[in-house]
């Protein structure tokens, strides 16, 4: 469990400190930037203020962050340095949304910034290299991140010996070493950061986070007294700013301290204070970290029902659970907790969820744990039955001892008959259950075969109609239009025969619409460039001025069978159409990701929602077709909808048919 807290805490540190650190007293800082936008006439100042505001809000309010970013772009007016800064802050915006996009924009910013030889350019390049390493960490690993900081970021910042950027980079390098359990190296770089920050930036945010990182490092080494010294220093810095968003990070480090000192009861009110700040500043990920710590403490205090409720809420909120490894940990914890509470049946359910997810992450030997819990469950059931039978037998024995041998023999025979009936009833129920399962399996196979035939026939018919429309009717209409255009050029006057040319324009529009229908029936980009490109084109097609679609693709392989790609494309097409046509949504988030043999689709919109009852057969043809395709790919679909929007999560099995 201690290692788990290290993993989650460090990941959180990267998420937070990859952004530019702002002053601890945030309100005057934000007010000054707003004053620049409202008062000054200099485009450079307005652009810089907009970029900094975008960076501040990027993890709090994404729409507002995007608004300030694009507002800053309007003030560039050919200024190449501002253009390079725009690339940097655009990368910052995408860092927690699309690491691939972020990495691309960081490289672009570095290339453009390197053309300028000044302090601001060098320090921005240092930050860009560091953030690029963070963006590539999951792909390249921690050695790549360390190498990037040491060979790219620090040499640029070291040109300006006592810069706060250099202190910040030393601190972040220390965080990396802490995560990899190299605590002595972490202390070394934290000390280098302190030499700069305590001397030159005594009240800075960089120094505040350095104190917290040092305290955390000592906590992970179970050196509580050393951690307390630096935690007190951090508290002294933040206490004058009770309205600052970074208070949440102080309370998180304080929580780790109490856990280290095994003062679990003292940690609970600290966690509640931290949760207050996370809710105030929309720090969802950090809030879930607090809740997870609260779960662990309540479990240690044997307040099992409260602990269970906390962890179930963390799963429902999804900020932490969206990461598959975190979700796997939560399932395991719930299984262990229910087992400890004496709920073997519920423990088995959570263990099976853990096993299923663990298999999707290519982890073996989980079935041993399932069998262990299942054996315990079966054993407890057998013991309960045996105990019941023994109780009945003991009661009978007492009665037999009071009666004559005839009644004793009769009672014994009766007991044997009852046991035999119970045994036969159990066998009957078991055989009946097995028969029902076989019937259901046959029925499911038949339904799957029927669905497969319908879907394949539908796609073949789509392809045929699309080909006939495009090559046949489309070609004929295009030829008619060309002939009319050629004839009118030599026989008609543009001014006198306006009605003819209006009709000719309608014919041209009809040809375009027919080709659009043909492409919609069979998307050429899917056949030529693969699923990810086709989905991106589909989102672009639905994009309007009043509709914002954020498409995120994660690890989608290009070698998927074409029928799998086509079915996934149709599912996404139906989801987008429903969100736009029926829900009247103006903001849509679409995420498609692949993990081994599983494909995940999540779509969220801010539309008007709809009433959905999973137990009743839907009357919507669109949802019916959607369910058929999900069942065809042996998938699961969860729908959550209210008047504030709709969320649909789909998990598909793409391991052949």
Q: Which percent band covers the strand fraction?
A: 5-15%
Q: Write down the Rg.
A: 32 Å
Class by helix and strand content?
alpha+beta
Oligomeric state as shown: single chain
CATH topology of the domain at 528-610 and 617-653: Heat Shock Protein 90
Low-confidence stretches: 1-19, 363-373, 615-619
What's the number of helices? 25
As a percent range, the share of helical residues equals over 70%
**Largest sheet composition:** 5 strands, mixed
Shape: flat
Tell me the CATH superfamily of the domain at 528-610 and 617-653: Histidine kinase-like ATPase, C-terminal domain
GO molecular function: ATP binding; phosphorelay sensor kinase activity; protein dimerization activity
Signal peptide: 1-18
EC number: 2.7.13.3
Enzyme class: transferase
Give the SSE map.
Blueprint: H1 2-17, H2 26-39, H3 43-57, H4 62-73, H5 80-94, H6 99-113, H7 119-140, H8 142-158, H9 164-179, H10 183-200, H11 205-220, H12 224-238, H13 247-260, H14 264-280, H15 284-300, H16 304-317, H17 324-340, H18 344-360, H19 366-402, H20 405-491, H21 498-521, H22 524-529, H23 531-542, E1 548-554, H24 562-582, E2 587-595, E3 598-605, H25 621-632, E4 636-642, E5 645-653
Helix pairs in contact: 1-9, 1-15, 2-3, 3-4, 3-5, 4-5, 5-6, 6-7, 7-8, 8-9, 9-10, 9-11, 10-11, 11-12, 11-13, 12-13, 13-14, 13-15, 14-15, 15-16, 16-17, 17-18, 18-19, 19-20, 20-21, 20-25, 23-24, 24-25
């Amino acid at each position: 469990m201690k290692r788990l807290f290290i993993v989650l805490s460090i990941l959180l540190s990267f998420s937070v400190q990859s952004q530019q650190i702002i002053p601890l007293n945030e309100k005057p800082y934000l007010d000054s930037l707003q004053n620049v936008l409202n008062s000054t006439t200099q485009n450079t100042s307005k652009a810089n203020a907009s970029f900094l505001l975008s960076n501040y809000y990027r993890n709090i309010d994404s729409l507002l962050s995007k608004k300030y970013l694009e507002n800053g772009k309007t003030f560039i007016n050919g200024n190449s340095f501002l253009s390079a800064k725009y690339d940097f802050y655009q990368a910052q915006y995408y860092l927690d949304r699309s690491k691939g996009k972020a990495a691309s924009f960081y490289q672009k910013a570095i290339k453009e910034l390197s053309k300028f030889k000044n302090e601001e350019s060098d320090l921005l390049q240092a930050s860009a290299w560091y953030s690029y390493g963070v963006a590539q960490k999951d792909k390249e690993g921690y050695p790549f991140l360390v190498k990037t900081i040491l060979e790219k970021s620090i040499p640029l910042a070291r040109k300006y010996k006592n810069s706060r950027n250099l202190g910040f980079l030393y601190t972040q390098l220390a965080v990396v070493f802490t995560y990899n359990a190299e605590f002595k190296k972490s202390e070394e770089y934290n000390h280098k950061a302190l030499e700069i920050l305590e001397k030159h930036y005594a009240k800075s945010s960089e120094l505040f986070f350095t104190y917290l990182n040092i305290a955390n490092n000592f906590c992970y080494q179970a050196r509580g007294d050393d951690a307390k010294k630096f935690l007190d220093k951090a508290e002294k810095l933040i206490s004058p700013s009770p309205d600052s968003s970074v208070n949440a990070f102080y309370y998180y480090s304080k929580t780790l301290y109490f856990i280290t000192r095994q003062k679990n009861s003292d940690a609970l009110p600290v966690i509640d204070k931290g949760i207050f700040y996370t809710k105030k500043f929309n720090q969802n990920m950090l809030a879930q970290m607090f809740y997870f710590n609260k779960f662990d403490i309540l479990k240690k205090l044997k307040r099992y029902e409260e602990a269970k409720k906390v962890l179930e809420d963390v799963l429902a909120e999804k900020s932490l659970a969206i990461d598959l490894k975190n979700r796997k940990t939560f399932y395991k914890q719930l299984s262990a907790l229910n087992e400890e509470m004496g709920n073997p049946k519920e423990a088995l359910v959570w263990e099976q969820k853990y096993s299923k997810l663990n298999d999707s992450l290519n982890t073996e030997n989980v079935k041993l744990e399932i069998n262990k819990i299942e054996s315990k469950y079966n054993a407890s059931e057998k013991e309960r039955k045996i105990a019941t039978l023994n109780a009945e037998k003991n009661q009978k024995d007492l009665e037999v001892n009071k009666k004559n041998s005839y009644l004793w023999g009769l009672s014994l025979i009766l007991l044997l008959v009852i046991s035999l009936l119970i045994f036969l009833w159990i066998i009957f129920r078991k055989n009946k259950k097995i028969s029902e399962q076989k019937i259901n399996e046959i029925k499911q196979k038949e339904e799957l075969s029927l669905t497969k035939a319908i879907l394949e026939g539908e796609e073949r018919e789509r392809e045929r109609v699309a080909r006939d429309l495009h090559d046949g009717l489309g070609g004929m209409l295009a030829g008619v239009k060309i002939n009319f255009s050629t004839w009118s050029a030599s026989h008609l006057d543009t001014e006198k025969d306006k009605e003819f040319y209006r009709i000719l324009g309608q014919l041209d529009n009809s040809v375009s619409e027919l080709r659009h229908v043909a492409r919609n029936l069979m998307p050429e980009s899917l056949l030529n460039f693969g699923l990810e490109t086709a989905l991106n084109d589909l989102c672009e097609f639905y994009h309007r001025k009043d509709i914002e679609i954020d498409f995120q693709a994660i690890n989608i392989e290009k070698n998927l069978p074409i029928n799998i790609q086509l079915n996934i494309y149709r599912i996404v097409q139906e989801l987008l159409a429903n969100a736009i046509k029926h829900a009247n949504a103006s903001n849509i988030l679409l995420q498609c990701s692949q993990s081994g043999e599983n494909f995940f689709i999540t779509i969220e919109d801010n539309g008007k929602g709809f009433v959905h009852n999973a137990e009743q057969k839907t009357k919507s043809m669109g949802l019916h077709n959607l369910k058929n395709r999900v069942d065809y790919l042996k998938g699961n679909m969860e729908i959550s909808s209210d008047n504030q929007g709709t969320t649909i999560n789909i998990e598909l099995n793409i391991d052949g048919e």
